[in-house]
Specification:
The chain has 494 residues and is α+β, with helices and mostly antiparallel strands. The chain has 4 domains: 166 residues, no CATH class; 102 residues, DNA polymerase, Y-family, little finger domain (Dna Ligase, domain 1); 35 residues, no CATH class; 103 residues, no CATH class. Helices cover 31% and strands 26% of the residues. It contains 13 helices and 16 strands. Strands 11-12-13-14-15-16 form a 6-stranded antiparallel beta barrel. A 4-stranded antiparallel sheet has the order 5-8-6-7. α4 packs across α8, α7 packs antiparallel against α8 and α10 packs parallel to α11. The longest helix is centred in the first third of the chain and has 22 residues. It is elongated and about 100 Å long. The N and C termini lie far apart (84 Å).
Length: 494
């Protein structure tokens, strides 16, 4: 009813404006907390959430079924899972109705329209059609226009739609869009057609979980249980021939809150000791509150694990790279993934663009996208007639050069107010500008070619300098109007 009418009936009625944004945020928080009941879950509309409990219900069964059948044991686990969910939400101050069925549409219908006398409603396996037949047509998540038209036609229950020919329904509706919407929702509820469900995150490739009747409070007990969970996950990774790249540990507290720990590795890993070291760095900062009664460990990102070749003396050939990976993992997880970077080659004509800094924990497939072409391999860049110096200046610095015009190598140059006499010189090597990029990246602000020279002064120092631009007469285009070429210091050779 209208608020004014309600206040006329109950003057002491308290009201406050609805806050849809805060409601949505709370539903997201509840969905994250509900990870103890299934990895795939998310909010569902303005007043609910959905959880896929496939393969999880049996973990909540307290004992075997009376007749010993597996199907009845799973059913017992489903009932106890729902009971545990309702109890925990009630302890947190939430009243709820919970529906369980083979499809999302049927579960939604049961939760919203079949929980008037009981907090839970379950449709057994293969019993969805019978379970929702007596529910009103509003349970199919239809628009008000569709519901009104169905009721005018005398179709008030979902079961009334079962035996009605579809062609006849479309003719009665006189609106193909509304009829198609009703049939689509009916098919989704009955499982005839699939309904896409987008979870909070991608389901983990491997997962391990444990629940506890007595909550864990002591930090040593929590760390011991996390270590056992990591060993279990590592065994599953080894069985699947995979290595972990990103790990997510969720610690569910008894007060309906959840704490998460995320750790990453620079290479596929399934060493329990190393993974426990990474988690322990952050586990000490977790507040257990009134206790932790569930632990879930997810392998959020995995890659094929390539066994390392052992040497003739029993040592691991890749021991040095493994030690470096362990150091990178520890620094990245302690300081943050964005603070530990790795220089990766990049295909570019300009020397200052041939390397880019990427997070050291970046996945291998992302690093592959930044690999250089064959002619830009590191070996080619350090040797040969077009060798690159191991040290480049942050920005090319102007120098004063005495050289023959137009393509003579420098005979003398002055850099940082110090004069140098050139003993040997090699070049030029011309590098054309990348015209498809911004011209602002060029030191002189113009898309001009560069002529690079490798020079050595009388003191034995090696330098990499270039001339930016062309002298008059070198450019054959009639409309070429360029400033006088300038010289720049770009790198140093050992």
């Amino acid at each position: 009813m209208a608020l004014a009418d309600a206040r006329a009936m109950l003057p002491a009625l308290r009201s406050r404006p609805a806050e849809a944004a805060r409601d949505a945020a709370m539903l997201k928080a509840l969905a994250r907390w509900a990870g103890r009941y299934g990895p795939n879950r998310n909010s569902d509309g303005p007043d609910g959430l959905w959880i896929d409990i496939t393969g999880v219900a049996h973990l909540f069964a307290t004992g075997p079924a009376r007749d010993g059948s597996a199907s009845r044991a799973v059913s017992a686990g489903e009932a106890e899972l729902l009971s545990d969910l309702v109890r925990r939400l009630g302890d947190a101050g939430f009243s709820c109705g919970v529906g369980l069925a083979d499809t999302l549409g049927a579960a939604h219908a049961l939760a919203h329209h079949a929980t008037a006398t009981s907090a839970t409603a379950i449709a057994g396996p293969g019993k969805t059609k019978e379970a929702i037949a007596a529910l009103p047509v509003e349970a199919l998540r239809l628009t008000s226009a569709s519901v009104l038209l169905l009721k005018r036609l005398g179709l008030t229950r979902i079961g009334d739609l079962y035996g009605l020919p579809r062609a006849a329904l479309e003719r009665r509706f006189r609106d193909a869009t509304l009829a198609a919407r009703v049939l689509t929702r009916l098919d989704q509820a009955l499982g005839v057609s699939t309904e896409p469900c987008r979870p909070l995150s991608e389901p983990p490739a491997f997962t391990a979980r444990r629940t506890y009747a007595e909550p864990l409070i002591v930090s040593s007990s929590i760390e011991a249980e996390v270590g056992a969970l990591i060993v279990e996950l590592a065994h599953r990774l080894e069985t699947g021939g995979q290595g972990l790249r990103r790990l997510l540990l969720s610690l569910y507290r008894t007060d309906a809150s959840v704490a998460t720990i995320e750790a990453g590795t620079s290479s596929p890993c399934r060493d329990p000791h190393h993974l426990l070291d990474l988690v322990s760095l952050k586990l000490a900062g977790i507040d257990a509150g009134f206790g932790i009664d569930a632990l879930v460990l997810d392998a959020a990102l995995v890659e094929p694990f390539e066994p390392a070749q052992s040497g003739l003396e029993g040592g691991d050939i890749a021991s040095k790279s493994s030690a470096a990976a362990i150091l990178i993992d520890r620094l990245s997880n302690r300081l943050g993934a964005g603070k530990v970077l790795r220089l990766m080659p990049r295909s570019s004509h300009l020397p200052e663009r041939t390397a880019t800094a990427l997070p050291a924990l970046l996945a291998a497939d992302d690093r592959a996208r930044h690999s250089p072409p064959r002619h830009m391999s590191p070996r080619h860049m350090m040797t040969g007639p077009h060798a690159r110096p191991p040290f480049l200046l942050p920005r090319p610095e102007p120098i004063e050069v005495v050289a023959e015009i137009p393509e003579g190598a420098p005979a003398r140059f002055t850099w940082r107010r110090v004069g140098h006499a050139v003993l040997k010189a090699e070049g030029p090597e011309r590098i054309a500008p990348e015209w498809w990029r911004s011209i602002g990246a060029d030191p002189a602000g113009l898309p001009a070619p560069r002529d690079y020279y490798r020079i050595e002064d009388t003191a034995g120092g090696g330098y990499w300098v270039f001339r930016l631009g062309l002298y008059d007469g070198e450019d054959e285009s009639e409309d070429a109007q360029r400033p006088h070429p300038g010289w720049y210091m770009h790198g140093l050779f050992p």
